[in-house]
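Hi L.,

You mentioned the student needs an example of a multi-chain input paired with its predicted structure. This one should do, with 647 residues in total across all chains.
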Amino acid sequence: MKRRQVLGALGLSALGAASLGGLALRIPRGQTGEPVHSRAPLPRPFRVPLPIPAVARPVRTDATTDYYEIVQREADQEILPGLRTRVLAYDGTFPGPTLVTRSGRQAVVTHRNDLSVPVAVHLHGGHTPADSDGYPTDLIEPGGRRDYTYPMRQRAATLWYHDHRMDFTGQQVYRGLAGFHLVTDDEQDALGLPSGERDIPLMITDRSFGEDGSFSYPASHHGAGVDDAHMEGVLGDVVLINGAPWPVLEVAAARYRLRLLNASSARRYRLGLDPARTPLVQIASDGGLLEKPIEHSTVLLTPGERCEVVVDFSAFKPGTDVTLRNGLGSGGTADVMRFRITGRGGDDSRIPQQLSRIEPLSADRAVRTRTWTFRRALNDEHPFWRLDGRAFDPERIDADVRLGEIEVWRFQSDLHHPVHVHLDPFQVLSRRNQGPGPHDKGWKDTVDLAPSESVDVAVRFRDYPGRYLLHCHNLEHEDMAMMAAFRTI
Amino acid sequence: MTAQADAAIETTTTPPPPDQGPRASLQVLRVVAVLHSLAFLAQPVFAGGYLMGDVDSLGIHRINAGVVTGLDLVQLICAIVYVWGGRGRAWPIWASLAVALAVEVQVGMGFERVLVVHLPLGVALTVGQILITLRLFGAGAASARPRRARRSRTAGAR
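Structure written out for the whole complex:
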């Protein structure tokens, strides 16, 4: 009798623990974010063709500089089939036009604001003078215009430009203010990587839609930032690639270069190809080429990050579908897009075993170590996010850093925080006191921090004195004050 | 026969036969102890959800801490009824009281984010509560405590 009762009690405990574990599995995997559910009927995946954003043409050029003009305006765009979505967009399209500029050749981009809200334009990954970096209080008011000067003293890389208005970045990017900016240079051109139509920029975002097709962004009732229930970050249930839901791209049985960008507010992705065993060969990171290619079965992409991979479709028969999936998604967000192999095509591209040289920023040469802690504010009336326990104050300088000096910056997290530093890329030295992770190689400007993680990076800022930012690139965390200003001197 | 009836007989009429152990009060105490154990087991699940990045899980962890605290009191009351009314052994009172006091410390440590105390104390409390529950399901819990001990404790309380 006694044994039976003990076994019964044990069994009950096990049952309870198991069902609680099942409950825990409902938590979105690998995310700090709160889902928003679409009310609009959602299309079946892999039906619409992948759009490629148009490349912007300079309005004029002179001996040193290419000049571009972009008008920010509202437009109605068919994102879900049969429905119109009001977007805030660069030149009226989401994503905006792709800027392709040359390393060493200055670009001046004039933005005219025909929207009803103030904006600030930040070139993410740009080595940019402070007055053109899009400081969140450095606004273009409605009806105004402004020249952003990009000297382009930086190597080839996949950059992106997006809105950075204080307290409103999350919703204004969500509504469409984002575009690619690709920097090219001789070094990269000489490698023989897939190019032209086989060089595809892929902007990955997640969005949710109201019944009428409008974006469902849970803004707070007073307008700035997000409502309290979504302070973790906004997760959509539709994956958009270049503004199209789960699109399909027809490809030749050849090598393709995919420039992956996570432009989502909060969602992290672990991207892999199905059928499995189709490797993603990483050639570049946020700040351009790696030294050597790295073969991954999946790549982790945190908000703001870029990863360039080469995929070889030549082993597939025409008619085969190869699907890009997200290991951190569930339901619709587990699918990303599809490649349909159409036929054979000549392919003279290659992936050299030596891509570039990267000067290591050695910790031995660092003049100091700074710690930056990304944590939720505790015991406040409203939920907030804090960097080093402080809310962002655009008038306060949180650190002075000398140009040219190497410093070790230690980032610490409570939850998932993608940490982004302006002005110059950094190198990851260690993660949890171990070596860099598989996705930490090369020059980075955004680094993924898992809960209770510590990542050491080596920073070195060059050329431009002024006021710059570091912040969490979960855009809701950024809007809720998880940002700090540093000054280069 | 109910616990109240047992108690009434003990105080007003002749003492019951010594082999009559607690019954109804023990069954109630067992159910409460099992529920209490489940509430304890849920706490690391919710804490784990938070550590995986989900902020809402921390809110549920806090709410469930309230459930645990409430069940502390319920279990203590049931233990008292079991001992005084049901003539059960005394240890469930002291064990339940110890759990209740430790949970107060545990909740305070949690709110103050003193995790070096909060985590081990949480593990110890969960293990302790499960051991209490298992012992309540053992044969010893169903037998009456020795008559001499019963009398001296009753006298001491007066």
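You could point out the following to them. Chain A has four helices and 33 strands. Chain A touches chain B through 32 residues (CB under 8 Å).

Best wishes,
N.
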